[in-house]
Amino acid sequence: MNAATRTRTADRTAAARNASGSRPAGTRAAAAAAAAGAEGAVEELCSAVFASLRRKDQRERGRQYVQGLLTAEGRKSIRNIALQLDRAGAAGGAGAAAAEQSLHHFIAASTWDWQPIRTALAEYLGRTAPLNAWVAQPMAIPKGGEHSVGAGHRFDPHRGQMFRGQQAFGLWYTSAPVVTPVGWRLFLDEESAPAPSQDSVQVGTGEEESYAGCAVSGVLNAVREARLPVRPVVLDVRDIATRSTLHRFAEARVPLVARIGAEARLLVTDPRVPGFGAGTMAARDVLQNVRGLRMPVEWPDPEVPGARRTSLVAAVRVMVPDPAPGRRREVLLFGEWEAARRLPTQLWVTDMVRTDPGALVRMTKTALRVSAASAASVQRVGMRDFSGRSLPGWHRHVTLASVAHAALCLAAPGAAELPAAPPAPVSHPAGRTPDAVPVPVAARAVALAAARGQRTAAVRRPALAAL
């Protein structure tokens, strides 16, 4: 563990200790207020995003499912959601068994399309909390059985280990007060693809894909379907910045900031930089050759309220080798050093070659906010809890869980206090237009404020825009 990581860990531990012993009554009151706020947010958000469901009973079932994801105890299975509806008197007197059967049909066997709901969710967020940048990350979903769509032996690049389960890719909407997913794609290969006879067509080609191809297709489809103004995509997937990836984003006219492997081969295009004319070089070596040009960049740490970090950053223009001259494009390689005498710890490339490297580094830190949400509140809404062989069922479940997650973000007191970098000035390329126990969000807001010695009474959820 390096010094920067130890410092961040110590700061988070101190904040948790300070918060745990301060104003327990206030914490309980804030949690109760969050519950009430979440209920109102669910009602308002569902009325906006479920407009594409033509039947009233479908819209009501969708609202009940979202509310159940937020309130059911334990695993957010259809059975537990039905039990919660029955306890709350929302099952219409039919009992939990009938409610479970109805919900199962609504998710796994109905014909409603989930994509219009995802589009409506993104548009709603665009009116409520303007988009800064998209962030794409993988999500590992461990599954021990043989009866889950897309389950197989997988490699989790974020943890660096093998597991058995599903691998999904999420596109996250990020703004100052909101970090929430709006688009999903499940990785299917020969081992895990559903039988051809099943009615399981994924958004996009519906065909078997490579790991990287699945990630890129999912992101580009989700960005296109969101129908929002062009903003950059932070592609936080290991070793994703391949020649094919860069070409597909360029064709889609979507600005990109993508992780690149330390050994990826690049061509130096600036004659003033060491390595020019020497053929392809490893990305890490290119950056090491320009380490004398490093500049300190300060950025707010999304994981520790009020904390600011400093990294050393250097950038250099390079080209990704391509046998087709017409597809060769100049990109900006930039790296981040946590310690001056060590190798760079983060390597990225972007086609926004005129954007300040400091702004680019701060943009990549948005991925830390997504990682924090993925580790905590995603579990709270049961994003990983769908079971079954129905691929449409999986898509419907994660879509409704995304609605629940968005309601949680919009209703949480203190959501606007989570540190977030302002939108970076975007320089578009030529020709373009722009299972741990989760901490309740309200309690987290109080803890964050307590760690900074601030009052929480004035913290209010952002107003929700109506259609």
Task: Offer a quick outline of the entry.
With 467 residues, this protein is an alpha+beta fold.
Describe this structure in words.
The structure is a single chain. The protein has 467 residues and is of the alpha+beta class. The protein has a single domain, classed as Transposase Inhibitor Protein From Tn5, Chain A, domain 1 (Alpha-Beta Complex), CATH 3.90.350. It is built from 14 helices and twelve strands. The chain has helices spanning 3-20, 24-49, 56-71, 78-87, 96-109, 115-128, 211-226, 243-252, 283-289, 357-364, 366-375, 377-380, 391-411, 441-451; strands spanning 133-142, 152-156, 161-174, 179-186, 233-235, 256-259, 265-268, 281-282, 295-300, 308-319, 330-337, 346-350. Strands 1, 2, 3, 4, 5, 6, 7, 8, 9, 10, 11 and 12 form a twelve-stranded mixed β-sheet that branches. Helix 2 crosses helix 13 (391-411). The longest helix is centred in the first third of the chain and has 26 residues, at 24-49. It is elongated. The termini are far apart.
Write the layout of secondary structure elements.
Blueprint lengths: L2 H18 L3 H26 L6 H16 L6 H10 L8 H14 L5 H14 L4 E10 L9 E5 L4 E14 L4 E8 L24 H16 L6 E3 L7 H10 L3 E4 L5 E4 L12 E2 H7 L5 E6 L7 E12 L10 E8 L8 E5 L6 H8 L1 H10 L1 H4 L10 H21 L29 H11 L16
Parallel strand pairs: 1-5, 5-6
Antiparallel strand pairs: 1-3, 2-3, 3-4, 6-12, 7-8, 7-10, 9-10, 10-11, 11-12
